[in-house]
């Protein structure tokens, strides 16, 4: 079995379909690793990519040039305005298993369908100029789930980061994640933050523990502790915009499930009945339209 | 007049009957309210600017009455956020005067506090309040300290981030004092050792102990009126797993049907949540 490598000329794929309708299907490097509770990678295959010469030349410094140039944004759908678009969207991708069960399919199919949904949303964020997308795969509370899926995209100038507790993942996967983070750290079109085994309360506790150590070592006094000090210690500090403007949760569950507590102080929350695999462009547009209509006062005067 | 009284009594009987039926299922232990929409209500009804909050007070009293009749033990209301100090000074002063009036009203014989045996807490950074309001709040907390039936937590000069900052400041101070004390009595000789590491590490229980809201369990339902669905820096820590409900009614328009709907939703999800808690 070949070593998992991030050299762009290797393609690991279970499925290759174009993200962009106008991109030829073979121009799609994507890494999809899907593994079971036994932590055994499921059919990771490697093959030499079927790239054209010009595409091969387009791979520079780990960045793959997509059909659009970085920074170019498509016109927005009707009803949306650029000045009222959220800059950071967070998503709780709930309902993959229920979606599969409702169709009499195995749970694995639910996760695959969920990943397709994620790719759609990532693509839409790139098109519409959303800067940061945080996705909640599962929290430390949900570790009992038998299967987890990861999707790493390094097309379209996307930076990928992981927050949460990756120590329970297989060593090879941890190394792969670190490698992807390092390779994509200079990408700037979209910052995709994947929350794995992330707990909002634990994030606050670990931030407080770091601060407490600084107090103990005499670097700061307890009176100096303030909100921005805590912000700097949270795991979400890796993103320039760490507070989501909009949070979307699918599957009709009206709760936060210990995801992003501190960061959601002024976030608009949007709950959708459909399960995550069914969440598509119309649902996303609806969420963005609702966001546009919300009157965000931050406790102050009416505008 | 007689007819009104008869109608009122019939409604009360019907309501109590409805609550009896609801009580067959699990009843939430703690409900939190964000009372949003008072100013919009005043505008909508063409009332004088600033009088929306007065219109919201009867709605609050009704919701408290319904919740206590239903058997809810803890109720938390977001009365005034630290962010609200950014509003026009006249509006802030008006709200402070209203709060002072209502706090004094709470201590009267016929008030809801005595009717339902409510213990009142004022939760937040009370040092930011003006002196009359702060003194009245402390007096109310003292006067109701022996009540044990139900609890009302009124969040004033409160934000969740301020609560967490305050909690960590106090926790650090406490740990620091403990460390100094153990150095003095020889239990810890100041060098790095296993005991020191253990006693100096801040834990989740330390933080929760020092939260303003540490006197109550986490809310089961958080209701925000006026259809806006956001937390506005309210109970961020405590709402990790609670049901969020946002009826479109403005706060002065909120009624029994909204409470019933929230409780029914809570009951629908309750068994699933209990199963999840057992799994952890």
TrEMBL record, chain A:
<dbReference type="GO" id="GO:0000287">
    <property type="term" value="F:magnesium ion binding"/>
</dbReference>
<dbReference type="GO" id="GO:0045547">
    <property type="term" value="F:ditrans,polycis-polyprenyl diphosphate synthase [(2E,6E)-farnesyl diphosphate specific] activity"/>
</dbReference>
<comment type="similarity">
    <text>Belongs to the UPP synthase family.</text>
</comment>
<dbReference type="Pfam" id="PF01255">
    <property type="entry name" value="Prenyltransf"/>
</dbReference>
<dbReference type="GO" id="GO:0016094">
    <property type="term" value="P:polyprenol biosynthetic process"/>
</dbReference>
<dbReference type="InterPro" id="IPR001441">
    <property type="entry name" value="UPP_synth-like"/>
</dbReference>
<dbReference type="InterPro" id="IPR018520">
    <property type="entry name" value="UPP_synth-like_CS"/>
</dbReference>
<dbReference type="GO" id="GO:0009668">
    <property type="term" value="P:plastid membrane organization"/>
</dbReference>
<dbReference type="InterPro" id="IPR036424">
    <property type="entry name" value="UPP_synth-like_sf"/>
</dbReference>
<dbReference type="GO" id="GO:0009570">
    <property type="term" value="C:chloroplast stroma"/>
</dbReference>
<keyword id="KW-0808">Transferase</keyword>
<dbReference type="GO" id="GO:0009409">
    <property type="term" value="P:response to cold"/>
</dbReference>
<protein>
    <recommendedName>
        <fullName>Alkyl transferase</fullName>
        <ecNumber>2.5.1.-</ecNumber>
    </recommendedName>
</protein>
UniProtKB/TrEMBL annotation, chain B:
<keyword id="KW-0808">Transferase</keyword>
<dbReference type="GO" id="GO:0000287">
    <property type="term" value="F:magnesium ion binding"/>
</dbReference>
<dbReference type="InterPro" id="IPR018520">
    <property type="entry name" value="UPP_synth-like_CS"/>
</dbReference>
<dbReference type="GO" id="GO:0016094">
    <property type="term" value="P:polyprenol biosynthetic process"/>
</dbReference>
<dbReference type="GO" id="GO:0005783">
    <property type="term" value="C:endoplasmic reticulum"/>
</dbReference>
<comment type="similarity">
    <text>Belongs to the UPP synthase family.</text>
</comment>
<dbReference type="InterPro" id="IPR036424">
    <property type="entry name" value="UPP_synth-like_sf"/>
</dbReference>
<dbReference type="GO" id="GO:0045547">
    <property type="term" value="F:ditrans,polycis-polyprenyl diphosphate synthase [(2E,6E)-farnesyl diphosphate specific] activity"/>
</dbReference>
<protein>
    <recommendedName>
        <fullName>Alkyl transferase</fullName>
        <ecNumber>2.5.1.-</ecNumber>
    </recommendedName>
</protein>
<dbReference type="Pfam" id="PF01255">
    <property type="entry name" value="Prenyltransf"/>
</dbReference>
<dbReference type="InterPro" id="IPR001441">
    <property type="entry name" value="UPP_synth-like"/>
</dbReference>
């Amino acid at each position: 079995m070949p070593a998992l490598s991030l050299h762009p000329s290797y393609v690991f794929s279970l499925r290759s379909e174009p993200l962009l309708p106008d991109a030829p299907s073979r121009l799609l490097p994507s890494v999809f690793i899907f593994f079971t509770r036994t932590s055994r990678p499921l059919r990771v295959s490697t093959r030499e990519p079927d790239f054209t010469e010009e595409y091969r030349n387009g791979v520079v410094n780990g960045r793959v040039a997509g059909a659009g140039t970085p920074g170019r944004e498509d016109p927005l759908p009707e009803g949306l305005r650029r000045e009222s678009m959220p800059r950071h969207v967070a998503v709780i991708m709930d309902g993959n298993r229920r979606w599969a069960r409702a169709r009499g399919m195995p749970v694995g199919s639910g996760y695959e369908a969920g990943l397709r949904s994620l790719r759609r949303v990532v693509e839409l964020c790139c098109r519409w100029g959303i800067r940061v997308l945080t996705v909640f795969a599962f929290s430390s509370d949900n570790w009992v789930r038998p299967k987890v899926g990861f999707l790493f995209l390094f097309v379209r100038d996307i930076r990928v980061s992981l927050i949460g507790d990756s120590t329970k993942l297989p060593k090879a996967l941890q190394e792969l994640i670190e490698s992807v983070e390092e390779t994509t750290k200079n990408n700037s079109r979209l910052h995709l933050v994947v929350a794995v085994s992330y707990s909002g309360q634990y994030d606050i506790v670990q931030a407080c523990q770091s601060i407490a150590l600084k107090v103990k070592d005499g670097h700061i006094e307890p009176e100096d502790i303030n909100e921005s000090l805590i912000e700097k210690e949270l795991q979400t500090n890796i993103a320039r915009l760490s507070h989501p403007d909009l949070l979307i949760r699918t599957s009709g569950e009206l709760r936060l499930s210990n995801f992003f507590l501190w960061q959601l102080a002024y976030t608009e929350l949007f709950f959708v009945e459909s399960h995550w695999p069914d969440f598509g462009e119309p649902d996303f547009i609806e969420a963005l339209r609702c966001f546009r209509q919300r009157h965000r006062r931050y406790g102050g005067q009416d505008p | 007049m007689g007819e009104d009284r008869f109608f009122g009594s019939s409604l009360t009987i019907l309501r109590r009957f409805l609550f009896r039926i609801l009580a067959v299922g699990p009843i939430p232990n703690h409900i939190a309210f964000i009372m949003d929409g008072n100013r919009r209500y005043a505008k909508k009804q063409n009332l004088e600017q600033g009088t929306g909050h007065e219109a919201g007070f009867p709605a609050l009293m009704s919701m408290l009455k319904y919740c206590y009749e239903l058997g809810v033990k803890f109720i938390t209301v977001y009365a005034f956020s630290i962010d609200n100090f950014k509003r026009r000074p006249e509006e802030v002063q008006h709200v402070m005067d209203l709060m002072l009036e209502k706090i004094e009203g709470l201590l009267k014989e016929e008030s809801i506090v005595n009717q339902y045996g409510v213990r009142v807490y004022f939760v937040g950074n009370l040092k930011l309040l003006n002196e009359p309001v702060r003194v009245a709040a402390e007096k109310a907390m003292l006067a109701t300290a022996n009540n044990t039936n139900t609890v009302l937590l009124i969040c004033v000069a409160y934000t969740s981030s301020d609560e967490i900052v305050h909690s960590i400041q106090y926790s650090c101070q406490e740990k620091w004092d403990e460390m100094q004390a153990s150095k003095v009595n020889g239990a810890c000789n100041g060098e790095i050792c296993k005991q020191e590491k253990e006693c100096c590490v801040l834990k989740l229980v330390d933080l929760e102990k020092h939260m303003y809201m540490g006197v109550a369990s986490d809310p089961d339902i958080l209701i925000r009126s006026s259809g806006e669905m956001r937390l506005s820096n309210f109970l961020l820590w405590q709402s990790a797993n609670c049901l969020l409900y946002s009826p479109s009614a403005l706060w002065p328009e909120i009624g029994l049907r909204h409470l019933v709907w929230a409780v029914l939703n809570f009951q629908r999800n309750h068994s699933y949540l209990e199963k999840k808690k057992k799994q952890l």
